[in-house]
Structure formats: structure tokens, C-alpha cells
Amino acid sequence: AETSIATDDLILLSDTSASGALRKMTRANFVSGVGGTNTPRVSVDKTGSSQSISATSWTKITLNTERVDSDSAFTSNTFTVPSGEGGDYYISAFAMITDLNGTSDYASLRLANSGNSATYNSTAVSGNSGYGWVSMAISCIRTLSAGDTVSLYVYSSEAISVNEDNANLSVIKLIW
Q1: Among 6, 141, 154, 157, which is disulfide-ready with 105 (CB 3.0 to 4.6 Å)?
Q2: Which residues, 6 or more positions from 22, have their beta carbon under 8 angstroms from its beta carbon?
């Protein structure tokens, strides 16, 4: 009959070498080292007030409310990969841009990191929205090394605002 096993139950393994000996270990020893935790992980929001952005310049978005920061890796609006924590990371960001004038001007959201010169952009043409605002989002998986940084920037061809309570950056180390 099938039953669950206890932590101190023995598991028998057959050694495939010439000796053919049986090896035994406890269930607790068998599963130690399997899996892991998805840390570091950070989720930060823009709260309190909108941020004014000047025309034609990339500006770092002020993210002033930490919801999660498992390793104290977020400071000065930048996530920095802690020592010994290099690996694959899921990165997600969004922002609501307001004060677009409804013409063919555009806004762009960018994730930038120091370890790889490539950036991810999400661009919206305000003339398409016709509402004076647009929401933009980015998500990706990137390989990051210790010391690499991730920040969220916005650019527009006109003066705009990043709406309060509608911007977020989340960075989570993946365990495969």
C-alpha cells in the first residue's frame, strides 16, 4: 500500500558499480540542497506625488516605497545585485504617464542595467491614446552578475508626469 514517508525513513539506492552494494540514506538527507529561495527579490512603487519629467531627457523614476526588499538591495532608486547573487532574474516594470498632449509626441519607458548595455524600451505614441495618458509595461528575464544595477527611466518628447501610485519595479532572482 502507498504511504507517505517520514523524515527518518530510510531510502535504499543500488550502487551500479561492480560491487552492486546497496546504499541507504534518510529522506531528510536525500532532499537536502534541493530547491532554493527566490532571493534577492525587490518590489518598489512610486507613491505620494507625481514626478515631473522634462522634455527630451531620460530621467530616473523616483520609486520611494519598498514593498519587498529581501536583501536590502534597493537604494537610491536602483536595484544592485548583492555579492554572490549573480544569476537569472525576472524583471518587471510599469508606469502611467500623464500630461501627454494628444499629438504625435511619445513617451518611452526603459529598464537599464550596468552589466549589459542593452535596454528594454516600451514606447507609446500619445496621439494613439487620445486621452493624455498612457500606461506602459516591460518584463524580461536577464542574466545579472554581482554588482549589476537595474533602474527605471522615462523619456518623452514633451514635458510629462509619471503618475503617483502607478509606477513599479520588481526584480526577482529565479531558481531553476
Answers
A1: 157
A2: 12, 13, 14, 15
b (16+ CB within 10 A) / e for 116-153? eeeeeebebebeeeeeebbebebeeebebeeebebbbb
Nearest Cα neighbor of 63 from 81, 50, 79, 44 is 44
Q: How confident is the model at residue 47 (pLDDT cuts 50, 70, 90)?
A: very high
Cα radius of gyration (the chain): 24
Peptide bond into 40 cis (omega under 30): yes
C-alpha cell at 57: 531627457
Whole-angstrom distance, CA of residue 74 vs CA of residue 63? 10
> Taking Cα atoms as reference points, which of 90, 87, 176 lies closest to residue 140?
90
Placement of cell 537569472 in the chain:
88
Residue 42: which pLDDT band, with cuts at 50, 70 and 90?
Answer: very high
* Cell triple for 84: 554572490
